[in-house]
Design goal:
Layout: E1 18-20, E2 29-32, H1 42-48, H2 55-61, E3 63-64, H3 88-99, H4 105-118, H5 128-134, H6 139-154, H7 158-169, H8 177-190, H9 200-209, H10 217-227, H11 232-242, H12 250-264, H13 273-276
Antiparallel strand pairs: 1-2, 2-3
C-alpha cells in the first residue's frame, strides 16, 4: 500500500497569494496579493519585483508567513516551489542583481540554473548518450557527440577523453576534404586534454600513415601544430627517424625539420636553410 502524501500545513507561507516583502534577502514576512489594496500593483510586483510602487503599503500590510491561513487559502502546488540554493556565491549574485534593479523571476531562475550547473561534477558525468551518438551513421549525430565530449574533456572528464580518443584511432583513412575537416574537429577537442603528450604516439602514426596531398595538407598541418606542444623528448626521436625515410617528400621533411627546430627552443627568426640541414 502506497503511503499517502502529507497534507500541506495551512499557513500563509504555503498559499499562492503570499508574496515576500522583499527579494533582496531571505525573509519570513510577506503580504497577501488577494488583498484588494494590492490589485493595482500586482503586475509590477510579480513581473518586475518593483516594490517601489507600493513600498508604504507593503510595510503596513506585511505579516509573518507562518500565520494561520484564511478561508481564501490556495495551496501552492509542489511544482511551483523552487528551493533556493544555500550558497554564498549565489547569495551575492542575487543581491547584485537586486542592487542593479535587475532581479525578477526570470533572472532568479537563471541564477538558480547557473548555480546548479556550477555545482555539477562534470568530471564524473556519464557519457552513455554521446557514446551512442558516435555509433550513429549520421555525421551530424557524431559531430554533436564530439562537441559535447569536447566540453567534458575541458572539465577533466577522463571517460569523455578516452571515448573520443578511441573513436579517433578507429577512423578509416582520409579520402575527402570533408573527412579532413571532421578529423580536425576531433583533434581540436582532444588537444585540450592534459598532458597533451598522450596524443603523441597517435599523431606520429598519423604522419607515418597519411599520404601527403592537397586533400590531406590541412590535417598534416594541424597534427604538426599539436606535436609542437608536446615535450621534445616525447617526439624528437620518431620525427628524426622520418627524415631518413625516402618515401617522404622534400616539403614534408622540411616541415618536420622546422618542427624539430621549434622544439629545440630556438626562435624562428634565427633559422636558416643550413640549420635545417643539420638533421
Amino acid at each position: 500500500m502506497e503511503p499517502q502524501n502529507e497534507e500541506i500545513e495551512r499557513v500563509c507561507f504555503n498559499c499562492n497569494w503570499f508574496f515576500p516583502d522583499t527579494v533582496k534577502e531571505a525573509t519570513e514576512f510577506g503580504v497577501c496579493l488577494n488583498d484588494k489594496e494590492f490589485e493595482p500593483f500586482i503586475d509590477e510586483l510579480l513581473e518586475n519585483s518593483n516594490y517601489a510602487c507600493c513600498k508604504e503599503l507593503v510595510s503596513r500590510k506585511k505579516f509573518h508567513g507562518m500565520r494561520e491561513a484564511c478561508d481564501e487559502f490556495s495551496e501552492v502546488e509542489t511544482g511551483e516551489v523552487t528551493e533556493l540554493p544555500d550558497d554564498k556565491e549565489f547569495e551575492r549574485a542575487v543581491k547584485s542583481a537586486a542592487k542593479k534593479g535587475q532581479l525578477d523571476l526570470e533572472t532568479l531562475q537563471q541564477l538558480i540554473l547557473e548555480e546548479q550547473l556550477r555545482k555539477i561534477d562534470w568530471a564524473q558525468v556519464p557519457i552513455d548518450e554521446q557514446r551512442e551518438k558516435l555509433k550513429s551513421p549520421q555525421r551530424e549525430d557524431q559531430s554533436a557527440a564530439i562537441k559535447s565530449l569536447g566540453f567534458l574533456i575541458c572539465q577533466r572528464n577522463k571517460a569523455a577523453f578516452e571515448e573520443l580518443f578511441r573513436f579517433a584511432r578507429e577512423l578509416p583513412p582520409l579520402t575527402s576534404i570533408e573527412d579532413v575537416h571532421f578529423r580536425i574537429d576531433i583533434l581540436m577537442q582532444l588537444k585540450n586534454w592534459r598532458p597533451v603528450s598522450v596524443l603523441a604516439p597517435f599523431l606520429i602514426d598519423e604522419l607515418n600513415n597519411t599520404p601527403s596531398s592537397n586533400t590531406t595538407r590541412q590535417w598534416i598541418s594541424e597534427v604538426l601544430k599539436v606535436l609542437s606542444r608536446c615535450p621534445a623528448g616525447k617526439v624528437r626521436k620518431p620525427l628524426t627517424k622520418m627524415l631518413k625515410e625516402k618515401r617522404f617528400s622534400y616539403k614534408f621533411k622540411r616541415k618536420i625539420k622546422e618542427l624539430l627546430w621549434e622544439l629545440s627552443g630556438r626562435p624562428r627568426e634565427f633559422w636558416s636553410d643550413d640549420d635545417l640541414e643539420e638533421f
